[in-house]
Amino acid sequence: MGKSTKRKNTFLPSSDFIFDHIDLDPNSVKLITPIWKRSRYKAIVNWISQYSVSPYADNLDQLKGILESFHLLCDLELWEKASHLLALPLSAPTTELLNDQLDTWGYYAEQIGLYRQLEGKVRPALGASVSNRLGTAFYFMGNYEAASTHYHSALILAEASQDIRQQGDILGNIGNVYNALSEYDIAIGFIERSLTIAKACHDIQRVGEACRDLGNVHYYKGNYELALNSYQKSLDASLACLNIQGEIEALGNIGSVYLALDEYDCAMDNFKVSLHRSEEHQYLRGEMCALGNLGSIFLFQGRYLESIEYQERSLQLAKEISSPENESIALSGLGNVYFRCQEFEKALDFYLQDLRITQRIANRQNEAGALLNIGQAYLSVHNNKLATEYLQKGLELARDIGSLGLEKRGLQGLGDIFLSLRDYSKANVYYQQLLKNLEKTGFKSEKQATLSKLGLTYDVLGRFDQAINCYQCSLELANDAGDLVGRSTAVSGLGSVFSQLGNHTQALSFFKSWLTLTNILGDTCGQAFALCNVGETLMSLEKTHEAENHLLESLTIFRALGMESEENEVLMHLCILYETLGDLTLASEYRQKLSQ
């Protein structure tokens, strides 16, 4: 599985350096007996000293001499030398050891093949490292069961060799597996133990990694403030110890929090730097994540073609490095683009592919997201039955894993379904639960919209005091945020409630505010409804001539928009108005138009 690169590769040290590193004297090979053993030593010398390839060749082609030598050392059962060869210092952009660089490049399958040859063959301290690296390779390939098995084996070996620093590293990795399985409390326990050890050992790099891991747990739980704080600590530690990979990951993670908080400019800045640094240092996993994240921002900006391009590039990298988790994320991203473009069948296809992968690798977090996406897609094609089924499954799983962010999406979708079906009691239940969720996660804009929807359900159910309270809270939030659309929705709702309570003076005040806002927003349809409500309220206050003007203006707009049922409603109001004025001719004329 070669990863092509157009840049010139000069990361291998000299052959003399390599021989010194594995403690092998090429001149003494001729003295080795028996012949079969000498021939393998000669082959090692030749692979290291004579193998050459174009400096523009793929990374694995560049490494072929080293990797062939590794296999020969294993044939000779020189396990320590073989392991030292994998720890060869390189001069690649990240100046990492070979085994770390393989991870940076995303060669997970190749790592598994190499480390399995050393498993159980080396001393405990080294064996712990081998098992730990095997666990990490399986983790990034989405095989969490195998990852957990190897991490626990590594922990036993690290404890046997009394290597505290290595124990801390492994504990953090075990925590990451539990995080992937959405066992957040268990994950935090392991990661905090890892952080404590890292601080005690004054291991700045590991402190940064543990802060990153804690940030990931908080992020998946929807605790974005805690996540951002942890990610910033991770970035500071990575910069302090010149950990470029950690820096790239921290930038991407910080960007993801800003993206979740709808702060797109801040998110974009972090993702761009993360992508640049990833490309500069050939860190494919970082590049893959940055591409997908930038694709998500382009989606929110309405730059759909760019979004598709970036998500497809991210998907290709995910396939190249055998990362099913990131493959599922890219598929979800592509589904989101087509969903926004109202190509719901294409969106469904990508969402269903995403669901199959998440179920196969047992990533419950992403599975819940896929279920919710599918539910929203079915809702958009008016398949309320399947939409409800998938949204309820997604909500149940989101609650099971304790993800507030995903729970929010499920509650929102189900509330909207039952609102559209005019099942106001069920919609009310879901919106109440959604409001409690939003109070925990702090999404003020969504809280404002939810309060207005909740107010509508209370209004229809005749629970007017609660409706007024919801609308007033919604209005306060909209005023604080300068949200004209939110203000428009809230004042229209308040007008409706006070109208039903017979307080027409108060209702008129709110309806006039609504009319003013629709004019400012250029909301022609909303303007027509506001005019109609103002006119109807003025009739109740016996201000018939003023009411007539508003109703006629409303009628003109509804007619221009082709909204026949709304047009008929205004015609009915005009009939009543002219009958009240005693103008039976006009009343008859409008009633005739109504019958047509």
From TrEMBL:
One matching Pfam family: TPR_12
Domain of life: Bacteria
Keyword terms: TPR repeat
Gene3D superfamilies tied to this protein: Tetratricopeptide repeat domain
Positions annotated as TPR repeat: 128-161, 248-281, 328-361, 368-401, 448-481
Stored InterPro entries: TPR-like_helical_dom_sf (IPR011990), TPR_rpt (IPR019734)
Protein name in the entry: Tetratricopeptide repeat protein
Residues spanning the membrane: none
SUPFAM superfamilies: TPR-like
